[in-house]
Amino acid sequence: MSLRIVTADERLREAQGKTTMALFGPSGAGKTTLLKTLPAEETVCLDLEAGLKSVQDWRGDSLPIRRFADAVDIACLIGGANPAAQPDEHFSEAHHAHLRGQHPELAARLDAKRIVFVDSITDLTRQAMAWAKTRPEAMSERTGKPDTRGAYGLLAREVIGLLKHLQHAPGRTVIFVGILERITDEMNRTIWQPQMEGGKAARELPGIVDQVMTLGLFSPETGPDGATAWRHDPEKGETRRLVCRSGNPWGLPAKDRSGRLDLTEPADLGALLSKINHASKG
Asked: What superkingdom does the record give (predicted)?
């Protein structure tokens, strides 16, 4: 039996050393440029969308990923072995040992990184869908023709498995970046939702990560007490802010499990992580 009691001090040390976060924003909002607010020497960017032009002067390491199978392997190297996985399954001890044996230099480089910036989860699900369509589960046993429902089911299982594996990566902060799209429903109401293939992974993601936030454009206003208030202004706003709390007045995806963040925060991930992990509540 590998079960053991975790002390309060151990739990606190682990909490201060890792955070999982989903960061959404409209295309072109500047999500990728937030890499510049993270310590370059401690951060690796998993580049799934070939979109690092905006941070070409950033001094950190990046790893281009063009196939879902490669994304799974990288997640295994980062997250380590899952003792519950069967030997022939992804993230098993056999899978992990094989990868470290085949790619010792890559494994060592990844071991040195404390922060993993996944850009983007939108493209991760697209790669997963392309992969899922090639699998036997995506073909109807009765007709031999493609089975779209089977492909989406496989996509959901594999993507959620990858996200949860990275969630458990010891001592790592993992930031999943995704596109946020604005939809107008039949009642002419604006709805903001993550752009991801399949609905199940998008629905479960907020329950997997510690923090959910949306990067948006805001305009400053002076409140009744003279303090600065921020108005969500996606068309004309000039200040980028991170929306961090659920139930916000703009209906943007957000969740603060730490309880330490304001309704909006400056667009600085390094400062945000410091506040989440080290600041005293209240």
From this structure: Bacteria
